[in-house]
Amino acid sequence: MNSDSGDRELSGEGAARRSVEDGAPAAAPATGSESRLDLLIRGNLITDGTDLGPSWVGVADGMITRIGTGSAPPATATMEVAHLVPGFVDLHCHGAAGGAYDDGLEAIIAARAHHLRHGTTASMLSLVTARPADLIRRIAVIRAAAAADPQILGVHLEGPCLSHDKRGAHDPTLLRPPEPELITGFSNAAGDLRTMITLAPELDGAMTAIRTLSEHGWVVALGHTDASYETGVRAIAAGARLITHAFNGMRGLDHRSPGILPAALDDPRVNVEVIADGEHVHPRMVRFLFDTAPGRVALITDAMAATGQPDGRWKLGDLGVVVTDGLPRLVDTGSIAGSTLTQDKAIRVAVAAGVPLRLAVAAATGVPAGVLGLADTHGAVRVGRRADLVGLDADLQVCAVIADGVRVG
After folding, report:
1. Which Gene3D superfamilies match (predicted)?
2. Is 391 among the domain residues?
3. Contact 247, 225 (CB under 8 A)
4. Separation of alpha carbons 350 and 358, rounded Å
5. Residue range 92-106: average pLDDT?
6. pLDDT at position 35, please?
7. I need a labelling partner for 339 at 20 to 30 A (CA). Which of 75, 245, 324, 402 fits?
């Protein structure tokens, strides 16, 4: 293309690496550049933590086939958005639309559809603490669902290996340490399904479990824990690589007994989740995480079944929950019980807290993809990848979702 015309085209890795000096990529024309596109989307392209400015993305046969600037090739359909970003990836979500991921296939489909409309194209499905036999059955259901829907990335076991004192919205009668037979049962049920587990590292047998699970490819997250800083350091050395919803379900940043969070912030190998809904974590502390752990913060929803539904009484596992003004709390203790958040709102809350948009988008896309070892397939806009894209308007509201090359809704 004519370098003086402002027309540029990227292919492969060049889609994320535009030259800062001249605002244009140095890349060869994309494969299949003469064929007509199914869809062409124009907008301010944000990917890989970088704002690439006004660009266009071409889609054909469900794949991103061309990316460029300036004049664009012909397409069957066109669309213009304020910002074009990768499809969101959610590491930690329990449900929506009246259904929990614990509740079977129909609930999984309904909840996934709700979050998809809000831009989450790929998700781990989180299960709350339950009896081991129930969890094993639920893992099997998710394994079957993931075989049919590759954008179900795996299962996240949030419990039962949690601290009693920091249990949050988990049934205290079902908590237990990570005994070898328990972990083996979960592992056998998961098979080749991508699996993440949240556990408290101070429990008996936890360090052995962390080491064993991380060696077998599980993502081990630390959370719902009263562990000390020193125990956090040991858990990270054993293989833990993620903090479950930072600040919630753990010690605060006390100057004498700071807990696990600063251990994670100290270590560049560890990522941290945060629920940016304006309720779980003060906006200033959301910004603190982005400032302290650049490139390592993952926005999550921790959304439960009431997401997208009216206020009222709900269940989280076997525990009663009341939702008021969109905030779920346990009926018995008043503890916050998950959220009714979606990833698009999490981005808006983070930006309102002072986080640059490009970094907030990365925290909902590339960072969580990297946590799961999926940086080569998810979380970025690149030629040759599935066309999972989100269009945002000037107010950062979702105005278009493209999943596997098809517009949703």
Report:
1. Metal-dependent hydrolases, Urease, subunit C, domain 1
2. no
3. no
4. 11
5. 97
6. 77
7. 402
Confidence category of residue 20, pLDDT binned at 50, 70, 90: very low
Domain that holds residue 74: 37-85+401-408
Q: Against a cut of 0.70, is the pTM above it? A: yes
State yes or no: 380 annotated in a binding site. Answer: no
Q: Tell me: do 118 and 135 sit in the same domain.
A: yes
- Is there a single domain that holds both residue 244 and residue 147? yes
Query: Is 9 marked as binding a ligand?
Result: no
Sheet holding 327-330: strands in order across?
Answer: 312-316, 319-324, 327-330
181 is in an annotated binding site: no
337: annotated binding-site residue?
yes
Asked if residue 305 is part of any domain, the answer here is: yes
Question: With 90 as the cut, is the pLDDT of residue 325 above it?
Answer: yes
Classify residue 46: in a domain, yes or no: yes
Tell me if residue 67 falls in helix, strand or coil: strand
Query: Known binder of ligand: residue 252?
Result: no
CA pair distance 203, 161, nearest whole angstrom: 8
Of all residues in the chain, the percent with pLDDT exceeding 90 is: 90
Number of structural domains (the chain) is 2
Token pair for 307 = 């997401």
Residue with tokens 């970088």: 50
Nearest-CA neighbor of 54 among 46, 64, 43?
Answer: 43
Looking at the fold, whether 111 and 45 belong to one and the same domain comes out as no
Give catalytic residue positions.
Answer: 302
Q: Rounded distance, CA 85 to CA 48, Å?
A: 10
CATH number for the domain spanning 72: value is: 2.30.40.10
Are both 173 and 262 inside the same structural domain? yes
Residue 3 has pLDDT above 80, yes or no: no
Q: Is 280 annotated as a binding residue?
A: yes
**Can you point out the beta strands (E) in 106-245?**
120-128, 152-158, 195-199, 219-222, 242-243
Is residue 6's pLDDT more than 90?
no
Encoded tokens for 73: 């090739």
